[in-house]
Every structure is written in structure tokens, then in C-alpha cells.
Amino acid sequence: MTSHRPTMNDVARTAGVSLKTVSRVVNGETTVAPDLAARVHAAVESLDYRPHVGASMLRRNDRRTRTIGLLLDDVSHPFSAALHRAVEDQARARGIQVLTGSLDQDPVREQTLAEAFAERQTDGLILAPTGADSGHLGAHTGLPVVFVDRTPTGAAGDTVVSTNVSGAAGAVRHLIAQGHRSIGFLGGHQHLSTTRDRHRGYLRALGSRAGPAVHDLHDPTDAERAAVAMLRGPHPPTALFTTQSMVTLGVVRALRRLSRERSVALVGFDDFPLADLLEPPVTVVAQDPARMGRTAAAALFERIEGYDGPPREIRIPTTLIPRGSGELPI
Amino acid sequence: MTSHRPTMNDVARTAGVSLKTVSRVVNGETTVAPDLAARVHAAVESLDYRPHVGASMLRRNDRRTRTIGLLLDDVSHPFSAALHRAVEDQARARGIQVLTGSLDQDPVREQTLAEAFAERQTDGLILAPTGADSGHLGAHTGLPVVFVDRTPTGAAGDTVVSTNVSGAAGAVRHLIAQGHRSIGFLGGHQHLSTTRDRHRGYLRALGSRAGPAVHDLHDPTDAERAAVAMLRGPHPPTALFTTQSMVTLGVVRALRRLSRERSVALVGFDDFPLADLLEPPVTVVAQDPARMGRTAAAALFERIEGYDGPPREIRIPTTLIPRGSGELPI
DNA sequence: CTGAAAGCGCTAACAT
DNA sequence: ATGTTAGCGCTTTCAG
């Protein structure tokens, strides 16, 4: 006497009907006599039967697993986590499950996980590309892919990004409007499209009067060091622009350390929790990760449903939130 | 001419071997002649064949999908997100994928998602129980379940929690050591085991001298209001203890609003990003969500491998981090 | 060392 | 309205 999980066959046997009738009832088809349906339901209850979606999917015509993959930089980073939550909510509304993975900017992991998801027959993939060539994905795995946060290299597909160039330019113009003429730039990984676009926005606003710049900052510690060096350098800027929250945080620490937090202005790209509770509160160009997630999910579901138009680039507006640090006069 | 995804049969045909030989090569069995294996590998490459893990799992003896489910309060909350990341890292090391879901404290969602995961044949489940009866899970779904963060009601299973009672008691004793005698309590959802345990710790440290208390605070706004009311009440405490970061944040705002942040001491349970950059920096009882995630994953994998001992309760130590707000004298 | 046949749990196509 | 048969892509069992 085995204690396997019950199958449709077991249900059919105890209900005294055929396998196919059980299948019909379980799938909610209406062409079943009420009394038979009732017997099937009773058997399902008593055996605690649960359908096997894997087996079902294998035979079904549409071959949908109702599962999507979501690959982000780091599911524990606030931006990624907010985006994740938005994707999950859209998926839940459609009864779709979400497989997640963190890439840590590692292209090998990007490829490995994309393949693992493909082998698991996820119906599609939402991906924050690492920046390496993502060409293997769309064509290779045959999965519908929507890119989010960054534009991919070597691959085409719907892409959901923030208005990075104009958002950054707006931030820098905001500083200029306060009278600043020497505005320092502190940027993250240079190979990422976001970093490059935000740098472009910085340059666009400043023209030939660009200030000192440090690139390829990885973490708050790097950023803190770089900001201290910049402010102690030969031509210290009166204001700073940072391209991502990790860098912004390091700069906040640097300004505190130098007791310059009330004399050097700061605008950071990407909002972060408690920015409004710091002294001074930090002015940011806020992204809208929830909307990015919703939008990416919507685009992916359209593709999964068969929409086959050309790749779309959807730009989600950013918002300058003046809180204090960006409104310090020169 | 159809453009299906290639199957093992297609590979076998182009390699000129039998289906079973392909299966052997794909599964890394060593009992295949080198030249046949080479032909198979070539065919796999040229067709871009990818095995179908669902079909494989269906026939396999162990019936493992190498997928686990992770159900948390809210994947975008810093605590949950950190825990998620730790689980993911443990899973990745074993080539296991993670399905995630946010429960928002909703027992219906807990049940629905647990069943959805069971239907997808996840090998196990890590769950932060909502507090409602979780009895349906372990027995019902037949899945190995490990509980995390909170102890379940009506269900047995390995459980990984913080040292909530002693952590809270330590925090309150810390305040007492600064001379405080009237210490207010601001707590989250009362039906959660964490909230109750932290309240118990608070009471244990204070004995009969417990101060004013507000329970069932849901969000920072509630907490802010409650703190303001408490400090304006007839017997305002000189120090506050909060049971979770959402409440702590609201209290920080309240103290600022009343300009009491340097005269009313505060220790919060659960650390949060930037707590050290506030003025004054916030003293907390830090949990270790990463370690909790690692531990829960390890326990789940043991269960999946067949370990069948009695339910274990694993308590992860907390750490008091004095930063300033908890060291204000009376 | 290799292959042919059976069957995992389910649904599609075709009876009846 | 119900049942029967075949087969999804794969691994198992058992034969060569």
C-alpha cells in the first residue's frame, strides 16, 4: 500500500467515472452531468487530489506553464525589490508565478539563469541586462524577453527604462539654477547604459563647463573616498551629481565627514528610503520602479499572448524631488 | 516544416543514435562510447537542444523539480528582501530555483500560493506564516515546509526565528541602564508571534514597572500618531521601545516633529538602512535576516534530502547596536 | 555499451 | 454527455 500523491486515475476510480470526466471537471468544463461532477468533486476532496501542472502542460496545446522568470541585479536592493513586487502583483492578477534570480552584474549568471529558466519552460523573461552581450537570449532560448532598467547590448526586445538623459540633465539644471557653475560628477559602472545616459544628461546640461568627474564607482566606500578626494582637490566643485543611490550614500557620508553637508549641494539619481530624514534631506531624481515593473510585466504578457510588433522602448518619467541638499546656494 | 523546439528524438535522429543514448549523454552518464557522445554533443549544439526538465521530472524516480517556494510578507521590504537573497544564494549553490510570493499578512493568499506551489511540484517551501492557522500546509500539501521569522499556528515544522524575547529584554535593559524608568512600548500586529515575543521581552525587563503601551500599529503613520499622543499624554515616558522598523520610522518622525529626538531615548527592534545616518543615529536590536535565510534554506534542503527528525526551532541571535538614540540619558 | 518498449499524469482527437 | 486511445518529452526497465 503506497502513499503516493493521488492522480487523476485515482480520482476516477473512487468516483466511478472515466479519467477524462475527471479532467473535464478539474478543468471546469461545463459539459458534465451535475451528479457525475458532484461525485468527482467529492473524490477530489476525500483524496486531497491536486492536479499536476507539469504533466498537464506537457500535453496541452498552448504549452504554457504560467510561470515567468525575473532576473535583476540583486533582489535585496531597494530598486530591484520594488520592481520585483510590482511584477509579482501583475503576475498574481493573472495567476502567474514568478521565478527570481540575482545577477550581481555577472554576464555568466545572466546566461546560466536564462537557460535554466528556459529549461523550466517559463513562458517569458523580464531581465535587467548586465551590459554584456545579451544576444544569446531572445534568439537562443526562444523565450519572449522584456528588458528593464537598462538597454541590452546585441539583442532586440521591448525595453522599459527611466528617462535617464533628461532626468539627469534636469537635476544638473536644477543645480545651475541655484547658481552653481562647478558641478562634480560621480558615476557608477561605466559599461551600464544607465550610467552612460545619466552622464550624457549631465554633459548636456553643462555643455563645455563640465566639472570634475569620477567614473566606475562600485560601492558607497569607493564613492565616499572619491568625493573626499574631489572636494580636497585643486578645483573643488560647489555641487555634486551622483548617478545611483549607492554612490549618493557614499557621498552623503563624505560630506558629513568633511562637515560640508550644508555647503556643498547634492542631487542624486534614484531615490532611496529615508532620504527625506537625513540632514539635510537629500534631493533626488526619483525613478518609479513600481511603474517600471508593471509596464515590463504588461509588455511581457502581451508578447506571451502572441503580440508580434517591433521592439518597443518605453521610457518611464523620473521626478525631481527637492528636499534640501539640492537647494543649497553656492 | 515546423520550428518546434527540438526534442531528444530530434537530437537522436541527427546524431544517428538512439533516444536513450542521447538521454545518457545529456545526463552525464559515463557509459557511452566517446565517439557517440561526441556526435550527440554536436547535434545538441547544432540544434540548440535544451532538455525539458518538466518531462524529465515526470518520469524520474526522485521526482524532484529542483525548485522551492519562498513566501514572505513582502518581497520589497528590506528584511524580507535580505532573507530572500540569502535563500537564493543557498539555492543557487545547489542549482535550485526559487519561486517567490508576497503574502501581505493575508492568510488566504498564504493558502492559495502554497497550493499553487504544491501543484507546480516545488520540492519544498520556506514560509513566513501570516499568523492564521497554517495547519493545512504540512499535512495537506505534503510538502516539506520550513517556517521563518515567525512561529506557525496549528502546524509543526522546522522554524527559524530571531531571539525575540531576549533581544527585546536586552534593549529595554539597555534603556534602564541609562537611567530610564518610564519606557513606552509601541508594537506592531499583536497576532504575530514576533510582536508578542518582543512584548514579552519588554515586560520581562521591566517587571511591574511597565510603561505606557500602544499595540497593533500598522504603518509609520499610525506609529507617528501614537508616539505623539503618548508623549503628550499624562505620563510621558522618557524612553521608547519599538518592535519593528516600520514603527521605529514613524516614531523617529514623531520625535522630530516634537523636537524631542535628543531628549527621548529610542531603541527599535530590527535594523534598517541608513539608521546610522539619522540624527541622532538610531540604536537598534539588529536581526540577521541573511543568516535566517541561510539557516532556513539549509534546514529545508535537509528535509528534502529525507531527514525526518522532529521539528526543530532554531533561534538566530540578535545584536544590540548602540548608535546614539538609545544612549540618551534621562 | 546500446537500444526498444513501457509509462510518468495529463489532455487532444476521436469515437460512442 | 461520456469514454477510449494516443502521445507530450523524457527516464526507466529490461533485452540484446
UniProtKB/TrEMBL annotation, chains A, B:
Key words, A-Z: DNA-binding, Transcription, Transcription regulation
An MF annotation (GO) of this entry: DNA binding
Entry keyword annotation includes Transcription regulation: yes
Keyword Transcription regulation: yes
All copies of domain HTH lacI-type, residue ranges: 6-60
Pfam family, one: Peripla_BP_3
UniProt cross-references to PANTHER family, sorted A to Z: HTH-TYPE TRANSCRIPTIONAL REGULATOR GALS, LACI-RELATED TRANSCRIPTIONAL REPRESSOR
Protein name (Swiss-Prot/TrEMBL): LacI family DNA-binding transcriptional regulator
The organism's taxonomic lineage, starting at the top: Bacteria, Bacillati, Actinomycetota, Actinomycetes, Micromonosporales
